[in-house]
Design a protein that fits this description.
The protein is of the alpha+beta class. The chain folds into 2 domains: 98 residues, Helix Hairpins, CATH 1.10.287.70; 167 residues, Immunoglobulin-like, CATH 2.60.40.1400. Helices cover 29% and strands 27% of the residues. The protein is built from 7 helices and 14 strands. Strands 3, 4, 5, 9 and 12 form a 5-stranded mixed β-sheet that branches. Strand 4 and strand 5 form a beta hairpin. The protein is elongated, with a radius of gyration of 29 Å. The two termini are 33 Å apart. The N terminus is likely disordered.
Amino acid sequence: MSDTPPLREDLNDLGFGRVAAQQVRGRFLSRDGRPRSRKYGLGPQRAERLYLTALGVSWPVFVCWIVGLVLLANGVFALAYLALPAGSVSGAAELGMRDPFLSALSFSIGLFTTVGTGPVHAVGSTANWLATLESVLGPLALVGIGGLILARLIQPQAKVRFSESAVIAPYRDGRGFMFRLINVRPSEMSEVRARVSLAWFEEIDGVRQRRFRQLHLERHEVEFFTLHWTVVHPIDRSSPLRGITPERLREAEAEFLVLITGLDETFSTRLTARSSYFWDEVRWDASFGNMFVTSPDDTLTVDVDRLDRFDRLDEGTTARPAAIELA
């Protein structure tokens, strides 16, 4: 017999803390899985947050940021050259440039990127010291940009797409809470595990308190995640959702917290994806539509655009408790 004491109900808070769990209003996780929480006393952490943001944004946004920052830095240096006495940047006329700002900007970009400035050169001690400063800062900035690009390339990230809504749909002789997910990266994931917890308010001895319930799933793990996966929690007489209705889900301010982990076969590392469904993101009297499509070569094929497709059912089909829940 194990000597490990059973987990106390007031400690089953998923790490949010018992006191905090009672005080929080609204959802714990955003739809993209980010915790809706803050920490004070650590300072703004602007550099750390900027670094994490640079790793997380899409490639088009990242490239626009880099180009914009490089142009901004060179624009500042160009204005600094223009603030010096006339003739501090010379030789631009040989390149056919008459505009002073464009001449200074071209000279600055050549120094900053180390590609060379051609016949354009700085004149005077102040201009040369400024050019020396830029020739040092430019390569350092390029090294930092190269490091960010390398970090983005080698950092494994889970790109799991969740269905926009969850459903209470027919399941066997009763109902089930369901949502769908699919891996949108071309790389494969295996040994994918799902964990779903329910956070909602219950009446305990006449006091309204938030409780966390672990939901038993039809299957907690799939070995091959090459297509999509419909995660199902059967609602039976042992389920925390037995007898659930739309009104009860709304009154309890229910939130379904989803944690997905899997092995990325390309990097041989475990990845994590999170999401949540608030009570108003759960559909009733509906079921997920078919995602499979016909392939000319008889290959198993799904249409990702059908991930959020639903089939409407008769009113009351799943909005009312099933007999198996009340047995």
